[in-house]
Design goal:
Strand content: over 45%
Distance between the termini: 203 Å
Number of strands: 20
Structural class: mainly beta
CATH class of the domain at 57-144: Mainly Beta
CATH superfamily of the domain at 57-144: Immunoglobulins
Shape: rod-shaped
Number of helices: 1
CATH topology of the domain at 57-144: Immunoglobulin-like
Helix content: 10-25%
Order of helices and strands: EEEEEEEEEEEEEEEEEEEEH
CATH architecture of the domain at 57-144: Sandwich
Length: 287
């Protein structure tokens, strides 16, 4: 029996009552309103369904570092569970539970690829032909050691002296690693990702190291700084070499031509012998 508040408006009565839905009343209920006047009774009724739809509730079990944001070291076995009410069907990352009211379970060995991975749970409940949905997600953080990607950190650099360059080098890890590159001999540190002026003494081998709480990783970078005047000297030497070759060739051609013009030539003088023909003396006139 509820305790209504009755208000009269002329020949109309209005009754208002407040009811609290609880787990003991879960299921189909009937609300009945009775009116009695001068021995006559009238009533009206409405059907009411009380249901419980909490959750879904998700849980990540493992060696958690942070409960508000689940964090585990790399290599940890993590169990992800999702559950809801007795009549609720749950689906975890697309895989449904065996039956309504049972939890869904997903087990994995945490790796670097699972860092920032989100797990989604969907819960459905049908009430009087109406399907209700509730969703929840949780993100996993995986702690792993630093790694320098060779594709994002060139190991051989050739730069000109007194030019402005940028050393591009990236490392990944969780927590975010600290990255620095030190000269092998002088331990001088060059900036990373920031423009700087290159000098000849920057030539050499550099050890680029990335470090965080999970470990350290190194990569060797060889930097070759060339004198900016070396190109000019090379060009001048090339020009001088070409001019020298041209001069030598011209001299040889001149000497060769001179030698041909001053050579000895044999002249064919012909034969000095002349044939003799006999000649008879002239006869005297009259003979």
């Amino acid at each position: 029996m509820l305790h209504p508040t009755v208000v009269s408006h002329g020949d109309t009565l209005m009754a208002t009552a407040t009811a609290t839905a609880s787990g003991e009343l879960e299921g189909a209920q009937e609300i009945v309103c009775n009116v009695t006047l001068a021995g006559e009774s009238r009533k009206t009724q409405e059907n009411l369904t009380i249901y419980s739809f909490w959750g879904p509730m998700m849980n990540l079990s493992g060696t958690l570092r942070n409960l508000s944001q689940p964090t585990v070291p790399e290599g940890t076995t993590v169990n992800v569970t999702c559950a809801a009410g007795a009549q609720v069907q749950v689906t975890l990352d697309g895989v449904p539970a065996v039956a309504p009211g049972q939890l869904a379970l997903l087990q994995l060995n945490a790796t670097e690829r699972d860092d920032r991975r989100s797990f989604f749970c969907n819960a459905t409940l049908e009430v009087d032909g109406v399907v209700l949905h509730r969703n929840r997600s949780v993100q996993l953080r995986v702690l792993y050691g630093p790694k320098i990607d060779p594709a994002k950190c060139p190991q051989h650099l050739t730069w000109k002296d007194k030019t402005t360059q940028v050393l591009q080098c990236q490392a990944r890890g969780n927590p975010d690693p600290q990255l620095r590159c030190l000269h092998e001999a002088s331990s001088v540190q060059v900036p990373i990702g920031i423009p700087f002026r290159v000098r000849l003494n920057y030539s050499g081998i550099y050890y680029c190291q990335a470090a965080n709480s999970q470990g350290m990783h190194s990569l060797i970078v060889v930097m070759n700084v060339q004198d900016c005047n070396s190109l000019t000297v090379t060009i001048v030497l090339g020009v001088l070499t070409i001019l020298g070759l041209v001069t030598v060739i011209a001299a040889l051609m001149y000497v060769f031509g001179r030698h041909k013009r001053s050579d000895k030539y044999e002249v064919n003088q012909g034969s000095a012998w002349l044939p003799l023909a006999s000649k008879q003396p002239d006869e005297a006139p009259g003979e």
